[in-house]
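Sorry to interrupt, but I need a hand with the structure work. It will help me judge whether the discrete encoding reads sensibly. Write everything out right here, beneath this request:
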Amino acid sequence: MGRKWNNIKEKKAQKDKNTSRIYAKFGKEIYVAAKSGEPNPESNQTLRLTLERAKTYSVPNHIIDRAIEKAKGGGEESYDHLRYEGFGPNGSMIIVDALTNNVNRTASDVRSAFGKNGGNMGVSGSVAYMFDHTAVFGFEGKSADDTLELLMEADIDVRDVIDEDGLTIVYAEPDQFAQVQDTLKENGVEDFKVAEFEMLPQSDVELSADNQETFEGLIDALEDLEDVQNVFHNVDLK
């Protein structure tokens, strides 16, 4: 799964360059999570997991607090979770997840980004079947072998654990996100470089230099959209 980790690392590096955009997206996601139940991470697991993910991007406390206070105050904004699927150069596959208060606007923006940047939209299900929804963690301080052993002792059935670029990477079932993270914390892992839900491609594709340039422009255009939260793909970025 090394290539998959490289794609996650590349995506996180790109996001880290666009902190204001990432903070805005997390602010929206935290607000939606807080409104989905009690605005308290102790009793709202969705909110708790969102805050844990926000920590890996160093989202400031004032953004978190403002989003939660807005939810507590009975904010009237309502958002829909949407997923779009499409294709880039040379049959590359792309999944776009959005959180929007205007479905028509978002659909139009996503379709336009595909059309103007060498891609095209697909129908629902045309791409997602080639990806696996996965919880991914990256951290320092424990070897892959030690990590696998302690997770097995906790009766957690992980997909894979590898050592990569100085980090231990854990791939797990998405519904075990909290259990994996809690177990790692209880065993001394304090700082997660990655704690995220990903759509991992079952196989990667490589593009020519020209096609990769077009592809990267398409991904940038999609990620720049106000309503887009995540973009997943199956290209082996170099």
